[in-house]
## 1
Amino acid sequence: MTEYTQLSFPFTSTSGKKVIADFSGEQVTSDAGVLLLREVAERTGLIDHLANVIEDSRHPGYITHSLRDLLAQRIFQIACGYEDAIDANALRIDPAFKVACGRLPSEENLASQSTISRFENALTSKDLRRLGDALVDCFIASYRTPPEHLVLDLDDTEDATHGAQQLSLFNGYYDTFCFQPIVIFEGTSGKLITAILRPGKRPTGREIRSILKRVVARIRTAWPTVAIVVRGDSHYAAPEVFSWCDAHHIRYIFGLTRNSALVQRMDAISRLAQRRHDIFKTKDRCFTEFEYQARSWHRKLRIIGMAEMSELGLNTRFVVTNILELRPSTIYEVTYCGRGQMENFIKELKLGLKCDRTSCHAFFANTFRLFLHSFAYSLLHAFRDTLLVDTDFASVRFDTIRLRFLKIGASVREWKTRIQFRLPQSYPLKDLFARMYGRLALLM
């Protein structure tokens, strides 16, 4: 293959003058907005908290980059769109990332890809368990005052694997080898509570119960009186989950896979939906409710049935819940269908932050990578929730935040007593940038 080593690139002349581009700029960055991101991290204490829960087993005489530096470098680079560890080889000299990690532009460069890879593969199961707890702690710390209620939305997603990766399994539904991580978001705010990397298979009831038990215990240690509602699709409608939630005063609403007994109880309401559709010629929904107990359930539970008739035919859906005071239509259309927003949260984590870059061989290393991307999600969510509130960008995606507020070109000069980032006068959002800087005080 031809290798292109040209370092000067002539372009079309303008007003009789040659236009030439090259890569000779020295103290220049394209990510000056990471300075704002650093301030959010400093004020929330996110990176310091992570560094404190990881045990550094390296020999002190050979340490060049502290755990905190490695965590900060990796999380900031992921947030800015550099999700691959190999990107660190070029970015280790970037003055903005060096300052964000607490180094002067003139000081030693940041870690290279090889150092980061060794770091990712060095963590133990104890470290990962503590990081999982730290992720929940960051969620708790994001509230200034204890909330009255929380909605815990559970879901899983495909994380395709390639090659001989530990615990990679073939999943018939996705028709590929993959991991199948479970993520839990707070349904009303979109804050990430936890993310668990797991083999590419459907979770069991015991596994779901174990995850909920650990997360809820940590939340209730901080907020003993908070009311909790758990939502999920039919994958999470397991008898172990029902009985545990009932025993711990947790409300829940899950999708329920149809069976012949459930469909039979829907005959009357299905015929009603058919008649209404024939009369009004529009899609029509009818609801019913009844008590039902499968053989493995600990008691009878409330079932909400929905029959929808349209030009495509009859569609019946079921949900199971221990919420008794709401009408069936409210339970289904508002409470249960409200979890549809969960798909957008997963897109932010998976597409916006590339959390599926779990390409290491070792499962522990891939688990750590998922945590790193999850902490980057928490950081960007805090950035948006605090600095962009009451602006036109209050609900934009992370991709937009990155392009408009982090990807800012700047020249950098280091003086004896200060470091100056010279941002472009043509930056169109400089007034908003100033407002965002003023809002940093809200994070104190």
Note: The chain has a mean pLDDT of 93.
## 2
Amino acid sequence: MNPDNGSGPVYVALPLTVSGLSNTSDVEFGLLTLEIVGPEGQHYRTPARGASRNFETIDLEAYFGLRNWLVLRLRRSVYHRIKNGKIQVKGISALKFYRRGETTWMPIGASQVAPGAGHCSSTIVEPPRLDQDAALKVLCESPDAIPTRTGLRLWQPETGRDWSEPLGSGRPYLSGPRDSWLSPLNRKDTLWQLAPAGLSPVPGNRWQVPRDALANARIAITPYQTTAWAVVDFDFRDITLSDYVKPPAR
């Protein structure tokens, strides 16, 4: 997956197919536990949850790249030790299955009920200081838990342009309690930064929306309800890691 040179970690991508899933299945792969057994019986395991994530101190990490790839991140010295021998890669992972709920369309500045997401509203939040930009804020409140995978899509009908974000992306990182214990409502919000009228958004900034685009824009709110969980195991034998790493450029 990356050249076999340099000094950083080596990424190896193994093709992966999970049987029993339909083409319409909406699945999220959870954290996985993985072990590599080297050609001479060496054992390398992914670190326990909560362990140090400084890669200089660990030999192996693993994650799913979309649905069809199992990505291994190996310390370079470990990779060179086992790259040409036959190894075994085994592990387990949790799967979470979703069902797409009803999509609710809401104009800018409106407030209405979105089934599955609660009572939602959208407002333009003006900046407290002149050196800051205004933002479009979408807020949903519900006495029930708001599904983690609730998607927002801001759509401009004149041009067909759209901007998508998960509901809740406007929430800052907090190391302590995340909910208001004095309120019976669950809340999630998302902010889209607005570019001043007449100016183009910063190239590559997918969170910034031209203020001019809001005149007739609409917001789609789509919750995804969790329907089931499962645990899958995998066991790849006689794998040669060097077969799955892109060779150095010549």
Note: Residues 109-171+184-216 form one domain.
## 3
Amino acid sequence: MGLKVVFLKDIIRKMPSDQPNLQLVQFEAKDGIVLPGLLYSPKDKTNKVALYLHGNGSASIFYSPEKMNYLAKSLNKKQIAFFPFNNRGAHYIHKLAKTNKEEKKYGTALELIKDCIQDIDGAIDFLKQLGYRELYLIGSSTGANKIAVYHYYKIKNQVKKYILLSGGDDTGLYYEQLGPKRFKDMLAKCRSKIASGLGDQLIPEYLGGGIISYQSLYDTINPDGDYNIFPYNEYFNHLHLSKKNLFRELKTINRPTLVIYGEHDEYCYGRVGDCVGVLKKECSDKKLFTFEIIPDTNHRLEGKTVELANIICDWL
């Protein structure tokens, strides 16, 4: 069988007329880390753009082409550009270069959630240089937690609206998985390793959440840490793990926010309706928040890309 040569120009000709303009780009986070992204632009110039923050684990925006492409197409029809990018928590472990040519390992196994501020601000600076002025943040899973962290530490930021998809209670889930004693022991062990300068060592035992270092596990399970944005387990079961006020970060959000969960989100303890009810009660201003539960789907909102895109676009 002979080889068939296909030229890029021929592929472009066959694309639908409403196909977004797409560029693979890279930008610098505020600390010089170089990150990749996809910029989908509508044909007519716009100053509106939605940034997309993926979750953790093996996540990457490059592994969800159907979802990214459809969200982009839908947003572009509303004259909103779409910018999903890989943050430093993409994949479990990988090397990223800095602008000074230094390389360093990042990924979920080593990331600290507060580093999202460096990534988001770098992305915003990059987009502003391209002429975008009206900015929206969409965050899925840990990406939703990151939006809350970003807002808490930078309340006077330039983002107009937030969209939180499937925000997770990782602290509570680890507590349920490990049990009270082992959870407490693991917190102590992580603190000890970090104090000894060994926080970036990988934990040799598998804890069910993938490869992870002591510093990142501590960041994830510390009840008083930045990661603990949606403490559903602690709230429902009166666990009294945290010294900080529950839903502290959520209570500071002072701009229009859309919250979306799948009806069967497997990380909501079988209580998605109750979780959304808690957020309605604890949010800063009910007039600013809109809540949606998409039927018959899970944490990743699988099979519901069309519904998701319609909800987001109509709300924006």
Note: The chain is about 35% helix and 20% strand.
